Amino acid sequence: MDETTPTCWDDLAAVMGAGIERVILFGPPGTGKTYAALHWQRGERAVERLICTEELTAADVTGAWLPNGEGGWAWHDGPALRAWRSGGRLVVDEVDRASGDVLSLLLAMTDSDGSSQWHHPTTGEVVRPAPGFNVIMTTNLEEMHLLPEALRDRFPVALRIDSPHPSALRQLSEDLRAPAQRGSLGETGRRVSLRSFYAFDQLRTALGAPRAAELLFGSTAATDFLDALRLGVMGLR
Question: pLDDT tens for residues 40-68?
Answer without folding.
Answer: 888 888 999 999 999 999 999 999 998 88
